[in-house]
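Give me structure tokens for this 218-residue protein.
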Amino acid sequence: MPEVRVVGADGSNLGVLSTDEAIRRARESGFDLVEVNPKASPPVCKILDFGKYKYEEKKKQRDAKRKQTVVEVKELKLRPKTDDHDLMVKLRAARKFVESGNKVKLTCRFRGREITHPEVAAQQFDFLLSKMEDLVNVEQRPTMEGRAMAAIVSPKPGVLHKLAQERIQKERAALKAAADGHPLPEDPDAEPEELHEADDEDDDEDDGDEALEGEEGG
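Here you go.
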């Protein structure tokens, strides 16, 4: 481009300059020449610190992302015969999901004659919900959905407020690191490590049980 409209580092309008002249002035100021509005005629460039400009743009994107937070629904699957040890594993996973700002859907699937004893699943749900009442609001009480029972919980406002405060602290730490010339800390909005829900290990055993039941019936 032969010429550009230039905005100085202090925000002043330097007018339309040749591109070479604009670059020279930026170098003399110890800054960079950055195109900020390529669609204008002539294009608009600003003399600024490009590293700081990139960081501020990234911060704006993080702020916008935080205002448009999408709450995910994590699902944890149970079986009527889930034992006490595995139930505690599910509880720890559910609490970690909620503490990360996610909703949690608890699902207990029934197979064969298990569906004739929904009270077993109801007891599991009562236990889990009672152990999470400090963190969650119950959006959906345990309800039958076909051959499954399901409940949904969401983080209490206090949990979300704590997460927001932690983000602010991390952003302040990032700004201080940038000002001191240190490497920036991890992105405060980076996705947390995913908690992988293992497949039911007893599915094959269930299939075998049902086959045996059929043979005995025959």
